[in-house]
Every structure is written in structure tokens, then in C-alpha cells.
Structures
1.
Amino acid sequence: MTTNQSADLAKATFGTGCFWCTEALYESLDGVIDAVSGYEGGQKPNPTYKEVCTGTTGHAECVEVTYDPSKITYQELLEAFFRSHDPTTLNRQGADVGTQYRSVIFYHNDEQKQLAETAKAELNKAGAYANPIVTEISPATTFYEAEAYHQSYFAKNPEQGYCAFVIAPKLDKFKKVFKEKLKPAEKATASH
């Protein structure tokens, strides 16, 4: 568990494939103070992006979200998690393949664990997806912040190919679904 969790703010950690996209989605939500791209769940201390990309370190690309529970709940963050990617594909999101792209929730306390397990079970029971959810639910371990050039990648590189053709359409769709939960500045751009 991270030590910079305060009484007013909480942490949540999610992996939905490429962290550039995950970070952009969570950054748009009102109540999210920060979303940091990084690596968690592996064996090697201080892994680099190049090492994680080999799939041999055991880490997942993920985002550590700092949020204000008085503005957005963990359940709402879980809803964003399950609706922003395909949680039924094992070690894959779109063209990204490997354990580093797995669907994963790293819980920071027992309440988060219970809420994540309940959400996964209810979605499976309801048949929300054509296939069973394979999302891993594991205790938070050491989170390693990704290299500086990965932080706010979409915001800094909107014209880059992956950003323009993969992240931008996904973010537009996400903003339509979560329009009531967007930061005020994001609501203005979502309505255009």
C-alpha cells in the first residue's frame, strides 16, 4: 500500500491494457485528483518500460488513481473500469497482447477487494458480456511510476497515431457514457 494516502483522498489502481488510454479516461472524471501511469504486480524492482514490454517481469501496465471519495466513489471508478475495456480477454486489449496488458484491479483495502469481487460477480451473473470476465483482483503491491514521457501521454501527444486513432475515439465514447461524472472542463468538450 502506498504511504501517501490521506484521510481525505484515496487510491485505486487499475490495469485495462495500455496505460496511456487508462490514464486519459480516469483524468477526465470529476473527483480524480491524479492518475499516474506505472507498473504493478511483478517481481522485478524498478522495472523499465522496455522490460515490462517483454512480458517477463510479471508487471501490468496500470494507473494509480488518487481520488476524492466525497466527489467520486470507488464503485463509480469500478464502473468506469469495467466499461472502458474488454474484461473478458485474457492478457490482451485490442492489438496489445501480453500479461502486461491484462485486466487487473489492485485493491488497497478489504472494502475495495469486496466491492471489486462483487462487481465482477454481478456482471458475470447478469451476462453483461458475451464471455466470462477474466479480470484479476489482487492486493496492491509496490507501484512503480512509469518514465516521465509516459505521464499525461495523450494530453501531450494528441496527434500521435495511437493517440489519434485509438485513444481519442475511446475517450470520446467514454465521455458520452460518463458525461455526468466528468470534470467541468471535460463536460464542455464532451458536448461539442
2.
Amino acid sequence: MDYSLQRRAVLADVYAGRTGLFEVCDASPYLTRAAKYHGEATDVACPVCRKVELTLVSYVYGEHLGPTAGQAKTQAELTRMDAAQEEFSVYTVQVCRGCGWNHLDCSYVLGAEPDPGRQPRRTRRRAATE
């Protein structure tokens, strides 16, 4: 799913003065750090400050990912996960490491479709100690 129409609407509000910069340039320190270490650099200038090029950060979510769910992943990691995991969702965020602009860019699904005949994996439970 592409969020470019929503992005354009937000930017139109910023340019018209209906929305303040503090409302759209609010990237958390965690998002900025994820952009630095896991992001993919682009050649697209930030639509707000126009000084820094945007970075794309991809986050993964899925019920079968366990502790990996919610983590930022590089494109190489996504490629490996696509081949080895059941279906999971990827959400890609645009981030400006200069001014803090951030907006959801797109979302998509990767991984293998679950096999309907396959039994769900059981997890072991530890016996309660008394």
C-alpha cells in the first residue's frame, strides 16, 4: 500500500501554514538511530528542510517472527527473511535525519504463504516449580 496521497495532504497543510513543523518533524531518537544503522539512503531531498536526503527505514511485523517483530531491518535482511519466514508485513518509513521529518511511505507483505495443511507449531511450556 502506498501512502503518497496522505503524505501530499500533510505537506500541503505544512506549506499552507495549517500544520506546524513541530507536528511533522517529530522523529523519535529510536527512529533516527534506526535510520542511521538500518536505513537505506535515497537521493530524494527532504520535503520540509530540503537540505538532507531522506532515508528509508523498514520495520517487520508478523505473528511468527517472535522477538524479531517490530525491529528495523536492512534490505539484505529482508531478502533473507523473505526466503526463510512465513508471511510478515513490512512498513517502510521516510526519515530526514536533519529536521526529523518522518512519514509512512509504504507497506507490503513478504515471506511464504502459510501452508493450510500444516499443523501450527507447538511451544513447550515449562512446568511450574513449587
3.
Amino acid sequence: MKKLLNFLPLLALLIVITSCSSVRVAADYDKNANFGEYKTFAFFKTGIDKAEISDLDKRRILRAIEAEMLTKGFTKSENPDLLVSLFTKSQQRVDVYNNSWGYGGWGWGGFGPWGAGFGPGWGWGWNQPSVSTSTQGVLYIDLIDSNKKELVWQGMGTGYLSRNMEKKEARIKEFVTEIMTKYPPVVQ
């Protein structure tokens, strides 16, 4: 039983770490769309310009989407079957951990000339609460039928974003790759 109690904090930490690194994805689509007839794509500049992220991140996302579309057999075209658009949302998450209870220390009291002698003792104490912040982002990728001007597929990925510039590009690729695993939809 004691080993189990010692293992629980490690298990909780592992769950927190893995949940922070994964991207949760979902997709929605038009059941009447014939996804087999879409062969070419282009980016929908009007929609992409509205995305409220830095131009650097937009370029990273667009490169990752283009790579995924090419991998799926699409060709980039001036007269596309599909237009690709995107938008993003983000929110700051603040976690406060205030469970740092423990024993206080003990020591010798101040025997001084004023006669205020305190002997050895002990007591309960606590540490300062720890605060961590993280940014959770949502990336939406929209595929629009260029002839009908209708949304036919939307993929969404939710996860934590990295502030580390070296890890940011890899994280963006992870978001896009995970979202695009939902395309084409499995139509029943």
C-alpha cells in the first residue's frame, strides 16, 4: 500500500505531462459532399488574412497544411477544387497549486538578556502556492468547395502552445498533422 501511495504523485505528474503535449482533434463535414472528386487546392487569402496570429505563425501553419495536402495526393492549383482557410483561438490558463503542506522546522529559542526564552519546538507550516500559466490554442482548418462556395469539411485541434521558438514549428506541425488525420472523412 505504501508503494502505491508513493507511486500516485508520479502517475499524476505523468498524466499532466502527457495531456499537455497531446492535441485533441475533431472534425465535421458535409455528408453530401463527394470528397473523392477533390484533387486540387489553393489557400483562401481572405479567410487567412483574418486569422489573429502573427504572420510568422501563419506561414508555419500554411507550410504544414500544404505539406499535408501534398502528402494526401492533392495538387496546388490556380483553379482549385478546394479552398483552404484557417482561424485560431487562444486562451491563457492559470493554475494555482496550494497543496504544499508540511512540517515546520524546530530550533533553539532566543535566550537573551530580556528573559524571553523559548525552547526547542516544532509546528506546522506551509510553502507559498505555486502558479503556472499556459496558453491553450485552437486551430481550425476549413476546406471550402470552390465552385459552390460552401464549407465541406472543418478540422479542429486543441492543445497547449509552446513559447519556445525552437519547439513552436514542431508543435504547429503536430497540430496540423493530427487535424488532417481526420481528412478525408469516413462516410458511413
4.
Amino acid sequence: MGTKLEWASAVALAASVVTAVVSTQGSGAAASDHEPVPALDQNPVVEAEDASALPSSDPSDVAFVAEPVVQALPESGDADVAGDDTAETLAQLVAMQDAPAKLSRNMRCLAGAIYFEARGESLEGQLAVGRVVINRANSDRFPDSYCSVVLQRSQFSFVRRGRLPRIPERSAAWKRAVAVARIAAADGWDNPAKGALFFHAARISPRWRHARLARVDNHIFYR
């Protein structure tokens, strides 16, 4: 009899324990009343079936995609003037210029005007002639390129049938004219006839109404 009572008591005790456990797991709201809700992981670990699907941390695996940038290259012979910050005289600056492998058509016309008009004059006189061509190309009163200015009808006496005469390109005078043309185009030296648009040989006296600026060697320059 005592054994049955002990067995019944044990069964009753087990039943009460089961009932208590079931009652504490009935709902999330009830559970949150007794236990704190664990904080969310700010950096969760992501698992993938295929490891290659995960981002790589190796910088060498990063591919950069960019659209190509296309820039126009400067015409040969139109590069910046060398030594314009260090030369003390125009002669020094001319001597510092490297002969370009190839001249653009416009630079050839500019150097041709200097060569045919002033190759026997000082470097300052050659520069002044070159700047007239450039000033005209920049003015709305004349064509807008060096060649169009130089080859314009009835403007330069050395032009023959709309073309430049043959140039001895191995001569020192031509190489000097090219160097002066580059300096003039880059505005790399002070022009003794600044702003001039016209000039004539000093031996003639045209009755121009233009404002006279200066005489440089054998030319008189006007605005």
C-alpha cells in the first residue's frame, strides 16, 4: 500500500512539472515578460552553398569599369614654347626651341609669312610680323586661320597664285622662322608692335588712316 502511494505521489509530481514547463512556452509575448529579447546581430554571418558567390576581399579581384576618355592631341609644331620662363633674351628663347618633326599647315603658313617678309630682319622684327598674322586670325575683320590670313588675296606680296613659294627648309633662316612662329603663336615674348593688324615696308608711304604703333626694323606697324 505504501509503495502505491509513493508511486502515485511521484506521478502527480511529474505531471505538475510538465504542466509548469508547458505554461512558460505558450507565446512569445509571455516569454518576453520574463526573459530579455536578444539583440540583433549587426554583422550577421552570411552562409552560401557556393563560396564563390560571396564577395571577395582580395583587392586584386576587384574590376573597375570606366568609359575611355578621348582628348584631341595638339597639332605637331603647335606645342608650348620651351624655356619661356628662363630665357633672358629673344635670341636665347629662339635657340631653346626644338625643331618639330612635322609642322601643321597653319604653323607652316605662319612661319612662311615670317620667312618671306622678315627673314633678313632682327628676331623682334620677325616676331612683330608673325603677330600681325595671329592678330588678324583672332580678329573678326579677317579670316580665322593663319593660312587663310596669309593666303588672302592682295594681302601679302610674296604669295603667288594663292600659294607660298618654295621654302629651303634646311636653311638656318627657315629654322629660325619656325622657332619665331612657335614663340609668336604661344605669345611667349613681348611683341614690340602689340595689337598691330597692318604693316608696310618703310620705303613706301601709303596714305593709310590706321593708327601707327611702331617701326621695327624695316616695317611700320599699325592698328
